[in-house]
Amino acid sequence: MLESLQALDRTVFLALNGMHTPYLDSFMYIFTSKLVWIPLYASILYVLYKNMNIRMVIFTTLMFALLIALADQTCSSLLRPIFERPRPSRDPDIADMVHLVNGKRGGKFGFPSCHAANTFALACFMMLLFKNRALTTFFMLWAIVTCYTRVYVGVHYPGDLLFGTVVGFAVGAVTYGIYRFCLRVDSIANGLKFHLDRKLVKHPYHIQHTSIIIYTGLLTIAAFAVYSIWWRI
Q1: What is the pTM of this model?
Q2: In terms of pLDDT, which residue wins out, 230 or 122?
Q3: Domain that residue 114 falls in
Q4: N or C: the chain end with fewer CB closer than 10 Å?
Q5: CATH number where 178 lies
Q6: Mean pLDDT for the stretch of residues 34-44
Q7: Which residues form the Phosphatidic acid phosphatase type 2/haloperoxidase domain (predicted)?
């Protein structure tokens, strides 16, 4: 059964990884990078700052940091050493057939995907924090495309991404649970002046300027979509 699933995973990977063009090489390589999304993350903090008191902004930011740390370390430090599944770019059975972008092979093991866990953890947390349909749709699509880029650049099997997605959703839900639990502790709530923002947390549809986050993300994508026309890997 396991061998059949792994064979199917390889077949799907090779089919998806084999569909490439010079333009998409550039676009996907940039999309899958981490630093290009700094404006998107900054826009989230900006919206929090425009709606919450500064103590709540700092506390929520720390929850975001905890979220990413948990998702990333669960995959890289806990699960990968257990499963020890090579990335497709380092799998001796198919490595010669893998289309790599810019020669990047990644580390030795790739199951589960940290990129999938991190992006879906953030998408899940954003969904629960803002409860905004447009924002949720954007982040879910963003996470899905991010996962696809990992197959495109040759560093993850679809199975790596699927399991990473499960980890991401679990971490996102748990972290949001921790967030809400902390706000129910009187000493913490008082220290954060939570009474000023209680309505926003319980009824987040009152949060304003959320469209800034979506526009920032779309403009970021548009910027490197245009840049990729002239820049080739």
Answers
A1: 0.95
A2: 122
A3: 52-202
A4: N
A5: 1.20.144.10
A6: 96
A7: 61-176
